[in-house]
Amino acid sequence: MNSKDRSQEPGAEVGCQLEETSQHKESLAIVLANNNTLRQASIIGDEAAVLHREKIVAAREDAAHLRENAADSREDAAHQREITASSREDDVHAAENEQEAPADQISMLQQANSNLVVAAIEAHRLAEEIEMAKVQLDHLAHHDALTDLPNRMLLHDRIRQAIELAHRQHRKIAILFMDLDRFKHINDSLGHAVGDQLLKMVAHCLGRCVRQSDTVSRQGGDEFVLLLPVIEHAEDAALSAKKILAALAQPQHIDGHDLHISVSIGISIYPDDGMDVETLIKNADTAMYCAKENGRDNYKFFEQDMNARAVERHSIEVSLRRALERREFVLHYQPKINLHSKKMVGVEALIRWQHPERGVLLPSHFVAVAEDCGLILPIGRWVLRTACLQAKAWKQAGLPPIVVAVNTSALEFRAKDFLDNIRATLQETSMEPRYLELELTESVLMRDVEATDIVLRALADLGVRLAVDDFGTGYSSLSYLRRFPIDTLKIDQSFVNHMGSNVDDATLVSAVISMGKSLKKCVIAEGVETPEQYTLLLDQHCDEGQGYFFGRPVAAEALAVLL
To answer: H-helix or E-strand containing 345?
Structure first.
């Protein structure tokens, strides 16, 4: 090879290397651009993740991992630039001295090229991961974390779109506001894990009850909202409500428990009940509370006069929260009479609210509100303690001891410290357990049979008497009478009231009395108001009676006179 050939060959290599360097710069530009994308996506992720606190830790860890990878990529790129610059200086020096490039320098350049390609591929992969993270964060921002249903934000957006479309096409839409009945009792008694599983089951069940165009949303807690964007008549919404009620009536099997749940539904219609999202949801919520007040497990359409009742309900709830502190509650006692001896054998403690503005309120005016807002627990415990203290006071006054019956709500019965509270109250008030009777409804007893059996047997072991209140109005299965340690059956007053004029009611009362006696239970009839009713019950050999015919509920002082 002559000197001319040797002088041309390095120059060609330099040109090739410069071209490769240009490509390297382009790859570096991609890396830098991707790095900027990383930083921007991290900021977006931080802002969106605030909406779901439960997911923020994972999101931040992912973002930190991405930033670390990006930093590694920048370091690799910087290192490659240093290698490339050093190689270029060596190439220029070699060209000037017309010397052949060393073999190890060429190897370094090839390695640098490979590293840059790997860095570019890694940067592209990171960009894809960031894009996926953005999509996931956007989903989290608009969906409920537990049920994966659309959340409040997404629901409001869809209702706005439905309103705009319905306005243009002169159509109606419906909003169904749903609240699970007594869900708090399940959460408090069986734990939040079971409650969460139940909410997932309800969400799945609701999804099967609606059309593809409808939206089922979880608002939080046990509240769900259904958007029907296309209806011809209001009755279409009623059909959807009936379908949901029927579907949820089936028992739910969760963690070894058979849970019987129901739902109360309120319905509002656009444009009849509101022209915007907030008004439609508020009115559906108001109608839902009316459904609860009318026995739960049903639905109600919104009516204008419901607003006044909603305001009153809110006022009662606010006042209730201060009533215990202000000692506005008082107990009245209604006698229970042995029908054969006509002697008083017990009393039922009945709460009254001495409202500072509205006067004396009966339980029907505030107990349902207290149950919904959770205040029934402290109120019920106050009733139990006050009744036991009163029994102690009667005894200290030299009056004959009698059985004092106290109504027990589902929330109290399912509380984890229910038994401990009973024991502590009996000990504190020096109340003999045999003179305390707890009245529970059939629905409370059958809510969770296994757990109920454990609690009832513990109460029976203490010596506390147990009664089934409103007997005959709840579950059709009577197997629990054989299983549970029940002492007393209270025939509901709705049967007693009409037993003189309705043959079926008279037959039912007679059957309950006969069954109770065969099971060796004490049978007491509620709502006895006339001599004719008393005579019929006596002829059927009913054990005890309670009602206006024997005496109205009176204050403790007045009852002492009767004793």
So the answer is: strand 344-355
